[in-house]
Specification:
Elements: E1 3-14, E2 17-28, E3 32-36, H1 43-50, E4 58-63, E5 68-69, H2 75-81, E6 83-86, H3 98-105, H4 118-134, H5 150-163, E7 168-172, H6 180-193, E8 198-202, H7 206-212, E9 215-220, E10 223-228, H8 230-234, H9 237-244
Parallel strand pairs: 3-8, 3-9, 6-7, 7-8
Antiparallel strand pairs: 1-2, 1-4, 4-5, 9-10
Helix pairs in contact: 3-4, 3-5, 4-5, 5-6
The structure holds adenosine-5'-triphosphate and magnesium ion.
Length: 246
């Protein structure tokens, strides 16, 4: 397997409580992975550690072909390395149009003055259109983001993350507050995105997880309790005891 992220023996305690306990697993470079587990299992804390928001007490987080350690890097630096994170509350600029939001989010490899060039501008608009297409907002490019529905704002936020071209996208509970139709569209966006990058999704909605059709890691008390297909992990008695049978 072509490993993009390797978490190895990671632990973190808050006031003596071990939220993450000797956690180890790997994510491949173009893989969809779902993480499930009971409240307080450490799912969000895992994302906090990978993005540099929380420093672990022990363990390693290795990144990319060269196995660079992400520990000790700032949050901004980790983001530049290609780790994108979707927070639950959308952070789109409500007064700006969908197109403006996506334009601002574009990862620009050119120098600061090239924005003045007509062709560079057209390239950017074409890229924005492609991202809008990918998130299903191609018809809403000129609408103010504040007018979008909750689901559409979430998709725009995902589009803005994709516009930064991350190699790993971390998504925490994307289906929360969405209608069934919005959930289905969200799965489609994430499945498409995972064809060219790693996507890690934390979600409690099992229907949503089933549609992702991917390997599932079950966390419990800060460690991996089970891993495999959804059918495999949901047949695991320990998983039923601590999570599904609640
Ligand atoms: N910054 C922090 N300070 C103190 N305790 C924390 C902190 N972050 C997380 N915890 C604790 O660590 C444990 C794991 O929390 P975490 O938010 O990672 O769980 P989770 O699996 O995301 O749960 P949920 O499904 O409810 O979102 C919880 O007991 C939580 O209270
Ligand atoms: Mg959480």
């Amino acid at each position: 397997m072509n490993t993009l992220l390797e978490v190895s023996g990671v632990s973190v305690s808050f006031d003596g409580f071990r939220a993450i306990n000797n956690l180890s697993f790997r994510i491949a470079s173009a893989e969809m992975r779902a993480i499930i587990g009971p409240n307080g299992a450490g799912k969000t804390t895992f994302m906090d550690i990978v993005t540099g928001k929380t420093k672990p007490d022990e363990g390693r987080i290795l990144w990319g072909e060269k196995s660079v350690s992400l520990l000790g890097l700032s949050e901004a630096r980790i983001a530049r390395e290609g780790v994108g994170r979707k927070f639950q509350k959308p952070t789109v600029f409500e007064d700006q149009t969908v197109q403006e939001n996506l334009l601002m989010a574009l990862k620009n490899k050119r120098g600061p003055f090239s924005v003045l060039l007509y062709r560079a501008k057209n390239d950017d608009l074409a890229r924005v259109e492609a991202f809008a297409e990918e998130i299903g907002l191609a018809d809403a490019l000129m609408r103010k983001s504040g007018e979008l529905s909750h689901g559409q704002k979430q998709w725009l936020e995902i589009g803005m993350l994709l516009a930064q071209e991350p190699r790993l996208l971390l998504v925490d509970e994307p289906a929360a507050g969405m209608t069934p139709a919005e959930r289905e569209h969200t799965t489609n966006i994430l499945v498409e995105a995972a064809k060219t990058r790693a996507v890690v999704v934390v979600e409690h909605d099992m229907e949503f997880v089933r549609r992702l059709d991917c390997k599932v890691t079950v966390l419990h008390e800060g460690s991996v309790l089970a891993e495999g297909s959804l059918d495999h992990v949901t047949a695991n008695k320990d998983v039923v005891d601590v999570y599904l049978g609640r």
